[in-house]
Automatic annotation (TrEMBL):
It is an enzyme of class 2 (transferase). Residues 39-295 form the Protein kinase domain. It comes from Cryptolaemus montrouzieri. GO terms for molecular function: ATP binding; cAMP-dependent protein kinase activity. GO terms for biological process: imaginal disc-derived wing morphogenesis. PROSITE patterns: AGC_KINASE_CTER (PS51285), PROTEIN_KINASE_ATP (PS00107), PROTEIN_KINASE_DOM (PS50011), PROTEIN_KINASE_ST (PS00108). This is cAMP-dependent protein kinase. It catalyses: L-seryl-[protein] + ATP = O-phospho-L-seryl-[protein] + ADP + H(+); L-threonyl-[protein] + ATP = O-phospho-L-threonyl-[protein] + ADP + H(+). ATP binds at K69. The keyword Kinase applies. Keywords: ATP-binding, Kinase, Nucleotide-binding, Serine/threonine-protein kinase, Transferase. Its EC number is 2.7.11.11.
Length: 350
C-alpha cells in the first residue's frame, strides 16, 4: 500500500491509478477501430518475419502520421503464434505510459491483422548508436532512466517485457524514448515462466539455464543495454550463440576503460548471475537502481513529465519525415477474395 507521501509523488500517483485501467482494458475483447482503406500508405519503415511496418497518413487528415504494423495471419498461424500475437495486440492496447508505444487503431482484413501506432520519427536507438559509435554517460543516464520508469510501470501491471534491445527503442522528435514491439511480453503477475525467448546477447542466465524466471530478466537486460549504450558493444559477445550463453552464465565481462566508477558499479550490481544480489529485484526493488550514485541528483520527476531537455535531439524535418529509418524496397501487399483464418482471430481477447 502506497504511503500518503508517495501518493503525491507524480510517478507513484500515476502507477496507483494505472493498474485498474490496464486490467479493465486487458480483460475486455478488443473492438476493431478503422479500416485499411482509411489510410494512405507512403513507405515501408521496417520488415521482419511477422510482416512489415508502414508509414501511413489518414486520408481525412494529411497532418497526422502513423506507423502501421501488418501481421500476416497465415504466418502467425503457421508459426503457432496466435496466442502470442493476440497477447501482443492486447498489451499494446492496454498500455498507457509516456515511454511506451500504444495502440491507436486496430482492424483486420482478409489477409492481415493491422496495428496502427503513433509514428515516432526520430528512428531507432540502434541507428543512432551505430552512427555515434557509443553514447556519452549523460545520454546513457537519460535513456536508462526512461527504460527504468517504463519497467516500473510494465512490472506494476504484471507484465514481463523480455525483449529490451536498441532495435526495440524509438527516439521521438524531442529526444525522448518509446519502447516498442511487445511480441515477447507476457502477463505473469507474481508467477514464474520458463519460455526461452529474446535476443542472445540480452538473455539473462536464468533463461538460458531454464530455471524459471520473472521480472528479474528485464533488469538484467537493462544492465546489458546500459553497457552497450556507453561502450558501443554488449558485454557478452561471440559469433556463436552457444559461446555467448557460456559467457552470460559465467557472468564474467570486462568493463570498457572509459566507464566512470559509478557506471561500472551500477552495471556490476545489475549484471549479477546470483539473483539474490541483483539490483532491481531486491527488497527495495527499483529504488536500489534509482538511488545509486550513477543517478545522484538526477531529476526523475522531470524526466517522467518530459520537462528535462534531452542531451540528443534527432534530426527531423516534420511529423512525417522518415529519413531516420532505413530504406526498404516496396513489395505489393498480399490479397485474398475470402477472409483467411477467420476463426483463429474472431475475438481478440486473452
Amino acid at each position: 500500500m502506497a504511503s500518503i507521501a508517495e501518493m503525491f509523488h507524480p510517478l507513484q500517483a500515476y502507477l496507483h491509478n494505472s493498474k485498474r485501467k490496464f486490467e479493465e482494458k486487458w480483460r475486455r475483447p478488443l473492438v476493431e477501430r478503422g479500416k485499411l482503406d482509411d489510410f494512405k500508405i507512403l513507405q515501408t519503415l521496417g520488415t521482419g518475419s511477422f510482416g512489415r511496418v508502414m508509414l501511413v497518413k489518414p486520408k481525412k487528415d494529411n497532418n497526422s502520421s502513423y506507423a502501421l504494423k501488418m501481421l500476416e495471419k497465415a504466418h502467425v498461424v503457421k508459426t503457432k503464434q496466435v496466442k502470442h500475437t493476440i497477447s501482443e495486440i492486447k498489451t499494446m492496447d492496454a498500455f498507457e505510459f509516456p515511454f511506451l508505444i500504444t495502440l491507436e487503431y486496430f482492424f483486420k482484413n482478409n489477409v492481415y491483422l493491422c496495428l496502427v501506432m503513433p509514428f515516432i520519427n526520430g528512428g531507432e536507438m540502434f541507428s543512432h548508436l551505430r552512427q555515434q559509435k557509443k553514447f556519452s554517460e549523460e545520454l546513457t543516464r537519460f535513456y536508462s532512466a526512461q527504460v527504468i520508469l517504463a519497467f516500473e510501470y510494465i512490472h506494476y501491471v504484471g507484465i514481463v517485457y523480455r525483449d529490451l534491445k536498441p532495435e526495440n527503442i524509438l527516439v521521438d522528435k524531442d529526444g525522448y524514448l518509446k519502447l516498442t514491439d511487445y511480441g515477447f511480453c507476457k502477463k505473469i503477475d507474481d508467477q514464474r515462466t520458463y519460455t526461452l525467448c529474446g535476443t542472445p546477447e540480452y538473455l539473462a542466465p536464468e533463461i538460458i539455464l531454464s530455471q524459471g524466471y520473472n521480472k528479474s530478466v528485464d533488469w538484467w537486460a537493462l544492465g546489458i543495454l546500459m553497457f552497450e549504450m556507453a561502450a558501443g558493444y554488449p558485454p557478452f559477445y561471440a559469433r556463436d550463440p552457444m559461446k555467448i550463453y557460456e559467457k552470460i552464465v559465467s557472468g564474467k565481462y570486462i568493463p570498457a576503460n572509459h566507464f566512470s566508477k559509478s557506471l561500472k558499479d551500477l552495471i556490476g550490481n545489475i549484471l549479477q548471475v546470483d539473483r539474490t544480489k541483483r539490483y532491481g529485484i531486491l527488497k527495495d526493488g527499483s529504488k536500489d537502481v534509482k538511488t545509486h550514485q550513477f543517478f545522484k541528483g538526477f531529476e526523475w520527476d522531470s524526466v517522467f513529465q518530459k520537462k528535462l531537455q534531452s542531451p540528443f535531439i534527432p534530426p527531423t524535418t516534420g511529423a512525417g519525415d522518415a529519413s531516420n529509418f532505413d530504406f526498404y524496397e516496396e513489395t505489393p501487399m498480399k490479397t485474398s477474395s475470402k477472409v483467411l483464418f477467420a476463426k483463429e482471430f474472431e475475438r481478440i481477447e486473452v
